[in-house]
């Protein structure tokens, strides 16, 4: 039965490929490592179709293509990919989720920094053990990446004890990595500047809200105004390394020059990734409510609040987020880290890789890796580095990072 439905799908894919791709021959017109899935070809799976039961599976792959590949649902994704894209596994360690979040590209060093999983599967970190910040040097990459996996070395940074359970990062900001940490046990969550160069000294910018510790700080971005925006959520408690929460899950703004902190958005289940458009007028917030650490996953949580991602207008005077509206709902896992390109397309790390939507919220396609990606970052023009827990992938594409993307 499976083979019948796959054949039927393959037929439908090719029969529809002509018009949306607008080329003479379907397969010749597609770039390398890519598959076109016409939405009409999957709209009806039929009585014998293979239906998914769990959003936390390895993803929807109707063509059965071996990951990693580009899964195209809308011909406009070809503009993101360009004519000669590639997606390649560039680092891996099957026993260690060394590449979870906080991807930061430092152009001066041509290096990407990132944090290992804090408190989750294969993170090798818990209430008694800190997680680690690693680094890969992109100058170690061969010139012709083509999808054949390679494994470049990861260097661990030796950091001061003030950095505990890093979960997010952005920058460089004023020449430093801007890290956000979840804290560990009684040690407070914090926002800190870390020197990307040895001796990796750090300066903590914030570790409390008028005397109270945050729950476990999660993700961070710099707004074009120069202000720092960040999310606070309960995953430290849900992953057994932080006390029970003392505050709602919210989004805050820190003025790095005055030290002033204020809330800018609330009423989330679990606010997580954050990103702005290049002009700073729209904010995107991922809500990962469907995953709850020791409380488990729940894909039936209300789709209006917990699971989807939100778009907000950023008030030009107060920076409060307003006009909240649904932006997208990921079919796979939960959307976590978010980035925006120069065209305003929105990228989110999901259960099957990185999904990309237009500014209007139309799904263009996926960097399909068949496993969880919690975050990604542009590494300069036309390079996207994808964190995938025990692996890192690098995609060479046509899209470029918006000014305030990292
Ligand atoms: C579904 O499978 C049944 C049993 O094998 C078969 O009789 C039927 O024709 C199939 N239906 C379709 C639409 O392929
Ligand atoms: C892989 O991770 C383990 C920890 O689980 C570590 O001991 C080992 O050195 C790592 N391997 C490489 C090649 O980095
Ligand atoms: C990719 O490049 C590697 C190393 O140059 C080569 O061995 C491999 O055959 C290439 N694969 C493809 C699909 O071109
Ligand atoms: C690191 O130390 C140098 C030398 O004291 C200092 O100039 C720099 O500001 C420090 N960086 C951070 C992030 O603390
Ligand atoms: C999942 O969430 C729904 C809605 O909140 C709730 O009714 C249900 O009991 C939850 N299921 C589990 C297994 O916790």
Task: Please explain how this structure is put together.
- Residues 1-17 form the signal peptide.
- It comes from Mycena belliarum.
- Keywords: Signal.
- It holds the Pfam family SGL.
- The chain has a single domain, classed as TolB, C-terminal domain (Neuraminidase).
- It is mostly beta strands and 406 residues long.
- The longest helix is centred in the N-terminal third of the chain and has 20 residues, at 2-21.
- It has helices spanning 2-21, 26-29, 39-42, 77-81, 235-238; strands at residues 34-36, 69-72, 86-92, 101-106, 111-115, 133-137, 155-156, 166-173, 176-181, 190-194, 202-206, 217-222, 228-232, 250-254, 261-265, 271-276, 282-287, 309-314, 321-328, 338-340, 346-350, 353-357, 363-368, 375-378, 383-388, 391-396.
- 9% of the residues lie in helices and 34% in strands.
- The strands form six sheets. A six-stranded mixed beta sheet has the order 1-2-23-22-21-20.
- It is built from five helices and 26 strands.
- Mean pLDDT is 90; it is low at 1-25 and 302-308.
- The N and C termini lie far apart (45 Å).
- One 2-acetamido-2-deoxy-beta-D-glucopyranose (NAG) binds next to strand 10 and strand 11.
Describe the secondary-structure layout:
Elements: H1 2-21, H2 26-29, E1 34-36, H3 39-42, E2 69-72, H4 77-81, E3 86-92, E4 101-106, E5 111-115, E6 133-137, E7 155-156, E8 166-173, E9 176-181, E10 190-194, E11 202-206, E12 217-222, E13 228-232, H5 235-238, E14 250-254, E15 261-265, E16 271-276, E17 282-287, E18 309-314, E19 321-328, E20 338-340, E21 346-350, E22 353-357, E23 363-368, E24 375-378, E25 383-388, E26 391-396
Parallel strand pairs: 1-2
Antiparallel strand pairs: 2-23, 3-26, 4-5, 5-6, 6-7, 8-9, 9-10, 10-11, 12-13, 13-14, 14-15, 16-17, 17-18, 18-19, 20-21, 21-22, 22-23, 24-25, 25-26
The structure holds 2-acetamido-2-deoxy-beta-D-glucopyranose (5 copies).
Protein name: D-lactonohydrolase-like protein
Domain SMP-30/Gluconolactonase/LRE-like region: 159-382
Signal peptide: 1-17
